[in-house]
Design brief:
CATH class of the largest domain: Alpha Beta
Oligomer: single chain
Order of helices and strands: EHEHEEHEHHEEHHEHEHEHEEH
Structural class: alpha/beta
CATH topology of the largest domain: Isopropylmalate Dehydrogenase
Helix content: 25-40%
CATH architecture of the largest domain: 3-Layer(aba) Sandwich
Distance between the termini: 43 Å
Strand content: 15-25%
Length: about 350
């Protein structure tokens, strides 16, 4: 695997917290791969010592795992190591569990790592968080009420409104509703939810360095309702929310037909996109277009948190766990984006607000 030393952080910069994810999935392995090629330099893994040692063996390397007593010791870790901050209270015997299986103990371990990372981020001890994949059924089996990382971190950060953005080099999309049934999601497409999503999207992209983000808003119904013939949500809810956002100085446009707006926003060679981001109404409407362009390139960003949080845009891949063959590309992209966002926030956190 080629070295990625160009991603090395500046000297004395705060580290990124990298949660190990579900220990029965591919998270620990792709973390070990990222450490081996230098892409995770400046990150500290929050997790279990034996799980990370197992992961280092599984990817065919002899990478030592250096156990830290304090996050501030990260700067003293030599290169070509996996710096690990053990998380208190993890279940025993995680490395002996059968990989590729849903287990409540694995879900509890993943949750403990998320809590530890959020605590460090809220205390200003890390520059941001990069989360390896968790399994939602394992999380539920552990008694956690959260359907995913986004809602979990929102609660840990005090409940402020957040939104999920999935992005790659060609397309960005932000969701009005996230992890819920389609029937429930449709009821969640309200004027307030759409307007709030547009605001959070606009502010988030400005913090990412786009001074005047161009926000496209997808309709909910086929052909964006066709003037009310296929549904009037665009006329009653989405259109008025866009108008209100425009009155606040936000460059929001639409509602556009969902089956074409993503093509219009895509930045491809020889085809500059018309928009910088698409606001989608529900999970699959927004995520299928981005993932179709390549899961290995996508990054999940949580907008609205008081700290940076990114993750790869794939799951635990239980079918690959333990084989040492999973690709770390999306994790590396998530680390790269977290560094960029944390740098932007450190020098530009006073960016003008809408």
């Amino acid at each position: 695997m080629p070295s990625d030393k160009t991603l090395a952080p500046q000297e004395h910069a705060l580290p990124l917290a990298l949660t190990m994810g579900d220990p029965n999935g591919i998270g620990p392995e792709i973390i070990a791969m990222a450490c081996a090629c230098g892409a995770a330099d400046g990150c500290v893994v929050l997790g279990d010592l034996e799980v990370m040692r197992r992961a280092a063996r599984q990817v065919g390397g002899m990478l030592p795992v250096v156990e830290l007593e304090d996050i501030r010791d990260a700067a003293d870790v030599p290169p070509d190591c996996i710096p690990l901050l053990p998380v208190a209270g993890l279940p025993a015997g995680l490395a002996d569990m059968r990989q590729g299986c849903i287990d409540a103990q694995a879900g509890a371990a993943a949750a403990a790592c998320i809590r530890a990372a959020a605590e460090l981020a809220l205390a200003g001890e890390v520059a941001g968080i990069v989360t390896a994949p968790i399994h939602k059924e394992a999380l539920a089996a552990a008694g956690e009420p959260y359907p995913g990382h986004t809602e979990f971190l929102q609660d840990l950060a005090g409940g402020a409104p957040v939104r999920m953005m999935l992005a790659n080099d060609e397309l960005r999309t932000v969701l009005v509703t996230i992890h819920e049934s389609l029937r429930t999601a449709l009821a969640g497409v309200t004027y307030d939810a759409v307007l709030q999503t547009i605001r959070i999207t606009h502010d988030g992209l400005r913090r990412m360095g786009l001074e005047h983000p161009r926000v496209a808003v997808a309709g909910l119904n086929p052909h964006a309702g066709e003037g009310g013939r296929f549904g009037d949500d665009e006329l009653r809810i989405i259109g008025p929310a866009i108008q209100a956002a425009c009155a606040e100085g936000i460059d929001a446009r639409g509602p556009f037909a969902p089956d074409t707006v993503f093509m219009r926003a895509r930045h491809a060679q020889g085809h500059p996109g018309e928009f910088d981001v698409v606001v989608a109404m529900y999970h699959d409407q927004g995520l299928i277009p981005v993932k179709y362009l390549g899961v290995e390139h996508g990054v999940n960003v949580t907008l609205g948190l008081p700290f940076v949080r990114t993750s790869p845009d794939h799951g635990t891949a239980f079918d690959l766990a333990g084989a040492g063959t999973a690709s770390p590309a999306s994790l590396i992209a998530a680390i790269r984006m977290a560094r960029s966002l944390s740098a932007d926030m450190s020098v530009g956190s006073s960016a003008p607000q809408p």
